[in-house]
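Budget justification note: compute hours in this period were largely spent on complex prediction jobs such as the one shown. Inputs:
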Amino acid sequence: MQKLVVIGAGMASGRLLEHLLDADPGAFEITLFNAEPRGNYNRIMLSPVLSGEKSFAEIVTHDDDWYGANKVTCRFGEKVLSVDTARKVVVGEKGEVAYDKLVFGTGSSAFIIPCPGHDLPGVVAFRDLEDTTAMTEAAGKPGSKAVVIGGGLLGLEAAAALRLRGMEVTVLHIASHLMERQLDPAAGYLLKKDLERRGITVLLEASTKEIVGNGKAEQVNLADGTELPCDIVCMAVGIRPAVKLAQDSGIACGRAIKVDAQMRTETPDVFAVGECVEYEGNLFGLVAPLYDQAKVLAKTLLGEEETFAMRELSTKLKVTGCDLFSAGDFDDGPGREDIVYRDPARGIYKRLVIEQDKLVGAVMYGDTADGNWFFGLIKDGTDISEMRETLIFGPSYQGGASADPLSAVAALPPEAEICGCNGVCKGDIVAAIEGGATDLGAIKATTKASASCGTCTGLVEQVLSVTLGDEFVLPTAQPVCGCTELTHEDVRRLIKAQELKSQEAVWQELGWKTRNGCHVCRPAVNFYLLADWPLDYTDDPQSRFVNERNHANIQKDGTYSVMPRMWGGMTTPQELIAIAQAAEKYGATVKVTGGQRIDLLGVKKEDLPAIWHDLNEAGMVSGHAYTKGLRTVKTCVGSDWCRFGTQDSTGLGIKLEKKLWGSWTPHKVKLGVSGCPRNCAEATCKDVGIICVDSGYQIGVAGAAGMDVKETERLVDVPTEEAAIEWTTAFVQLYREHAKYLDRPYKWVAKVGLDWVKEVLSDETERRALVERFDVSQSVYQTDPWAERAEPEAARRFQPLADLTLKAAE
Amino acid sequence: MSWIDIGHIDDVPLRGARLVRTEVGCVAIFRTDTAEVFAASNTCPHKQGPLSEGIVHGQKVTCPLHNWVFDLNTGEAQGADEGRIDTYPVRLEDGRILLDGAAVSRRSAA
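Corresponding output:
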């Protein structure tokens, strides 16, 4: 009988022993080493043990009786010190064992982030029973808190289990969405929402700085300054193959122990199986391929032919109630198309990835019933061209209908606010409809919904349609783009009503038909989110038009124009010298603009950070000549110099520009302040134009001098500069909160009516509240984008990633 | 094929692009998803707009100058516009972006 020694009693080696003993119980005399003081158990079922849904005894796969019956010599709780492949012996803590065949099943160990405090008591991984017991004990204390570092499969299972035990749980994840290796951002968003619903706090893009405490882990501090008190820290950030013993024994290793398709290492009579192996550059963490390996190795050891082959994998999360599924290659490599299906009412998201008429990947959330059917199509490489149209509806729904365009509105709860002006909820409108108000006019009359600014008209009509069915004929409104059936006004209203604070939330909850929008809707949605939730939403540069991303205006030849701010059109000799020097240095053409500033044209993208740096040094900041935001405040010289000037128009212009610069608006905003009715600053064709008179300030709004030419309309006359600034700011904020993206103020005012604008702004409380909300937004966005991007790290992004022409020349 | 390591995936913004200078001109590396990249010509056939500055959505890019949309799989212009951009083999390995050096060398262009 040959002597077989197996190092490590994990899931792969356990399965190997079963196969060996089934096939030929008398082939080997087996010795099994395990560093843990116990035998094989089903490690992936530790989650239900942690949550209390199962006991440890239930997940043991092989007990003492089994080892005894099969005459396996168990050396549990004993570490293997070394392996001598020349003499063919394994050296354990309690002595040597000779082998004819040796199997490494050393598995993997948890990766621990080497941050300060990682070695404090109370910091555990989630790998073995000891970890599980430590967490269970911590959970026993009432009101105890856990921090789980890592939002992957393992971390989330730990978090959900600890929450079930009644702990306050916070999950920290470094990436921008959960389980980023198995899920796309949309499914990651739904998962986060589900976890938050069960009381788990999820912090994304959270970088752990340190763990602190007096003799044990008591608090986790993040790089952004957040402090999280806790009783236990679970690190579940990943695993690394445990290969030190193999390396020390001279077995060939890459990232793990290298094996061939028969599970042979490069050393004769030495084999490896499980998470500690590397096959054709691949490592393994999920259980299915480990079982495949065990089967192959059993055959190899018995002298039979068998070959290990990589296969497609699917993932399911073992958290009760979180229904997600992913399989195949859904985010890797060119040549692919998507089919996306979203049902916001039921929280369902499905995405199929197709390549050359074959399904290659699937991500599903909320309804995974068809997961295995899709997985089968992936594995078999079935030609799906025939059923492509209805594929996403699954096997039982071939020939199905398209998604319901009204589903987003149908999904709204009764308390969702439809009309923001009059505070009317969906439930009120439905009640009115049921009470006999069956058209828009009747709804307006009975509930006041859409009776003020009117931007919610589309939504009110959709509620009518959802409630009345075929009895109500929906007027055709222009949707934002092909990604949605909703209009801009609908989207704006729903972002507020449903408190949608991320692009993923908008795509999912409003049933977007594409993976991540398009060049039409993305900039609009990005603006709506940052305007409505300045503190919660982070601006996404990748959803911006090139000029706003690069903070300069792209020209027809691909170069850029650079324009520093000149407050109220005033400059100094020093600024002019710096501008002249920069123009010479970077070969720019110089143009004086209509907005009383100086434009430097023809600057190369690579030179942008450098020219910004030079202009910053001279005290100048970006003029935002490229934004949907505040452009210029044009002024005349006013009472400072002009014999007709009635007020300090230049001074007011500068104050307004200093107040408003840096703010993002639905379209560009230009101001003018003239010192007397002769109007030298041409203020009466601006978005906001102020004419100074002896008695104070006449504020006009909604002028235009572009494709349309239109004189401003009088908003109000005020006696003081302070009042003029307050009214102007409140007007700009009202425009920011209500207008459709890419509507200039004159178009927006034409839609909502100047009377409504006047009515809102005349209410002093509301006017002040608008100014306050504007100030909150400015606390985030009033920063010089040039200074940020002239920093070396940011400036690097303006250079090419690589230059292969240099390499070739060498 | 000769795979050249041109940088890390995180050097390219998500739903964004970076440029690589090559013998066949500027090639844009588009990152359409967490781990999904494409390589294509940076130059729009319409008015030579820099495609790497366009908005990346799904597996498409929109030219910043006049909103032509290209499918990054095939390089074909979408909708009513007619035209095509060259695409190049690119792949990801352990987070590194590998571009096919042979496809972007002068010899292959000739």
